[in-house]
């Protein structure tokens, strides 16, 4: 870390990128602190890759400004490049070489001597559980192995800032978990990670702060807790004994919960409702128990009842205005 490391890793003001008359990135203002995984969450086509490429100096902005560790991404592109790495871009793997050969070659290109490059490659292959595959050509690798090798290549020289653009898209659950462990280890060593993802659970698992973007704009930004708080203090899930009473239960809940949206789950017995803090200052738990009492008074039998924090799915639905009982799942909203 250099002097003045209290500065943000990334600051953008009114950042814009247009393709024809399409504003792929449409005026993004963000301050991304150092030393954390920062999640940029958004559906396909939201502008995530375009945003990241401008920060990594691979695309020139059409408007606004961006600084990485205080350096302007256009005027001081070389200084920025010296401190960042982008998975899948700088680290282009040669399919005909083995995993080990790829890493050694890259280490040599980065200026390491032969034995240092070999040593570093072996260390990375072990850390990324690729030792057994080290001497196989990359073209024989599975998607998960390839992704791990790609990330290993991007951190051969430990960058101060690593861009991981959808690192787990298309991976099976096990490979996904391996990549998550790797991301946690990377940030544990002091590298700031900007992670883009379409997966709410991934942002929830890895990121300390999250920006939700849609159509090139930030629609929400904050800690996970803040995002959830903006949607409601809690989320009530309940399952009725009798599915025919669900419309009645929906009415009772809507009345008791200060008009927060009530969602009908795919399961015909189940409802989900967001719970705000009551106008009289009562908390989510009090509101929820009042709602439960009202359901009992209306003779609507409840089999299971739980109160928790809203999930990021619910957060996204609320922020994009699709949460008010439209019945659209987040998978559909993000497809
Ligand atoms: N090179 C390009 N030429 C024209 N349009 C592009 C180009 N790259 C991206 N776009 C458009 O810009 C928008 C944002 O794309 P992108 O940044 O790739 O989104 P994301 O990474 O979130 O899926 C999309 O509508 C996409 O079609
Ligand atoms: Mg993308």
At a glance:
36% of the residues lie in helices and 25% in strands.
Write up what this structure looks like.
- The longest helix is centred in the middle third of the chain and has 16 residues, at 173-188.
- The protein has helices at residues 48-55, 77-81, 99-109, 114-127, 143-154, 173-188, 200-206, 224-231, 246-256, 284-297, 312-319, 330-334, and strands at residues 10-19, 22-32, 37-41, 63-68, 71-72, 84-86, 161-165, 192-197, 209-214, 217-223, 234-240, 262-264, 270-275, 302-308.
- The protein is elongated.
- The strands form 3 sheets. Strands 6-7-8-3-9-10 form a 6-stranded mixed beta sheet, sandwiched between helices.
- Strand 4 and strand 5 form a beta hairpin.
- The protein is built from 12 helices and 14 strands.
- Residues 1-5 and 323-335 have low confidence and may be disordered.
- With 335 residues, the chain is of the alpha/beta class.
- The chain folds into 2 domains: 10-228, 3-Layer(aba) Sandwich (Rossmann fold); 233-309, Elongation Factor G (Translational Gtpase), domain 3 (Alpha-Beta Plaits, 2-Layer Sandwich).
- Helices cover 36% and strands 25% of the residues.
- Adenosine-5'-diphosphate binds next to strand 2 and helix 1.
- The site of magnesium ion has 4 residues, from helix 1.
């Amino acid at each position: 870390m250099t002097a003045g490391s209290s500065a943000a890793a990334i600051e953008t003001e009114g950042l814009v990128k247009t393709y024809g008359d399409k504003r792929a990135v449409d005026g993004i203002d963000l301050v991304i602190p150092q030393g954390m995984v920062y999640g940029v969450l958004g559906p396909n086509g939201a502008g995530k890759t375009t945003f990241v490429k401008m920060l990594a100096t691979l695309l020139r902005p059409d408007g606004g400004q961006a600084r990485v560790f205080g350096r302007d991404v256009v005027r001081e592109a070389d200084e920025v490049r010296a401190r960042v790495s982008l998975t899948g871009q700088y680290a282009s793997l040669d399919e005909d070489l083995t995993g080990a050969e790829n890493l050694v070659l890259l280490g040599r290109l980065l200026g390491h001597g032969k034995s240092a490059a070999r040593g570093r490659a072996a260390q990375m292959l072990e850390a990324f559980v690729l030792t057994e595959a080290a001497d196989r050509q990359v073209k024989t690798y599975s998607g998960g192995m390839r992704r791990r090798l790609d990330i290993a290549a991007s951190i051969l020289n430990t960058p101060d800032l690593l861009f991981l653009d959808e690192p787990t898209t298309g991976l099976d659950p096990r490979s996904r978990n391996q990549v998550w462990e790797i991301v946690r280890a990377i940030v544990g060593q002091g590298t700031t990670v900007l992670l883009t993802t379409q997966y709410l659970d991934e942002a929830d698992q890895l990121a300390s702060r999250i920006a939700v973007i849609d159509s090139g704009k930030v629609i929400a930004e904050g800690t996970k807790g803040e995002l959830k708080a903006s949607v409601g203090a809690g989320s009530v899930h309940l399952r009725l004994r009798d599915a025919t009473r669900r419309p009645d239960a929906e009415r009772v809940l809507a009345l008791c919960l200060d008009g927060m949206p009530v969602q009908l789950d795919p399961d015909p017995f189940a409802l989900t409702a967001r719970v705000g803090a009551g106008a009289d200052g009562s908390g989510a738990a009090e509101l929820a128990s009042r709602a439960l009492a009202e359901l009992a008074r209306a003779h609507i039998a409840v089999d299971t009842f739980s109160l928790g924090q809203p999930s990021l799915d619910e957060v996204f639905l609320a922020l994009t205005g699709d949460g008010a009982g439209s019945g659209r799942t987040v998978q559909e909203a993000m497809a």
